[in-house]
Amino acid sequence: MAPWTELELSALNPLRALWLTLTAAFLLTLLLQLMPAGLLPGCALFQDLIRYGKTKCEGPSRPAVCRVFDVPKRYFSHFYIVSVLWNGFLLWHLTQSLFLGVPFPYWLHGLLRILGAAQFQGGELALSAFLVLVFTWLHSLRRLFECFYVSVFSNAMIHVMQYCFGLVYYVLIGLTVLSQVPMDGRNVYVTGKNLLMQARWFHILGMMMFIWSSVHQYKCHVILGNLRKNKAGVVIHCNHRIPFGDWFEYISSPNYLAELMIYISMAVTFGFHNLTWWLVVTYVFFSQALFALLNHRVYKSKFVSYPKQRKAFLPFLF
């Protein structure tokens, strides 16, 4: 087979196709929401599927049939439980393979091959994938902690389809990272036979960006949680208030922007060139921009005194 043919086939692997499809779907949805109100799709199911939490409560009137599929928003914690367990399981297998030479299980290696993992991928560093999988696990662990001890959930709802998508999403993220590991059969291929010899400047930069973005996201979630607590830290209500402080001075949903920055930090850790991960980043960009736009509109409609200088998602731009 000609080299260019092999390149085309690897570029069109199922994993990339899936992330590209999700990116296109959320881009289209975002563009529809930017259209004049009179031109927006009137389908109740469509609006119900793209909204959750306060945007579902404050959005268009919901038919009774839609409420049958409601799941409490506090079930967000289930996403991170699944992620901590599943991605911890993948991280354990990767660690075993990297440091003890234990090959991946046949079923896991077969699954990665089906998704499009290739042998000796274009100079990809095993250390990059290892660090990104560690970041993914730490991110999920922190978000799980926040769900239990920082966030204060109201009686807001999400659609059961959103709930199922969230569960599958964190399984898929771990598999996406693991599929970027250069393989020699069922074993990880490590250039130079020493993982630390693969350390590069972009690993340090990616780690710094990950920590910086995670700290800001944590601060934003603390600010949101404190809006429903008194000075003693006791929850006193579940109403929505205008948040102030940190990145809230510039945008309505800085926690969503921080989420995007976390994924960009992982792209940096991959060395900037990983096409599959950039498709993930693009999906995250459009999905978080959509949710930020819906949040921004709720804030503006609910609070007459809402700061006019704030944007929805990107400071000074959008």
Write up what this structure looks like:
- Strand 3 and strand 4 (187-188) form a beta hairpin.
- The chain has 318 residues and is mostly helical.
- Helices cover 60% and strands 3% of the residues.
- The strands form 2 sheets. The chain has a two-stranded antiparallel sheet. The chain has a two-stranded antiparallel ribbon with strand order 3-4.
Concise summary:
This protein has 318 residues and is mainly α.
What shape does the CA trace take?
globular
Radius of gyration: 21 Å
Encode the helix/strand succession as letters: HHHHHEHHHEHEEHHH
User: How many DSSP H or I helices?
Assistant: 12
Strand order of the largest sheet: 1-2
Task: Give short descriptive properties of this protein.
mainly alpha, single chain, 318 residues, 4 strands, disordered N terminus, two-stranded antiparallel ribbon
List the helices and strands and how they pair.
Elements: H1 3-11, H2 14-33, H3 44-50, H4 54-57, H5 64-67, E1 70-72, H6 76-100, H7 106-115, H8 126-149, E2 157-159, H9 160-178, E3 183-184, E4 187-188, H10 201-226, H11 254-269, H12 275-302
Antiparallel strand pairs: 1-2, 3-4
Helix pairs in contact: 2-12, 6-8, 6-9, 8-9, 8-10, 10-11, 11-12
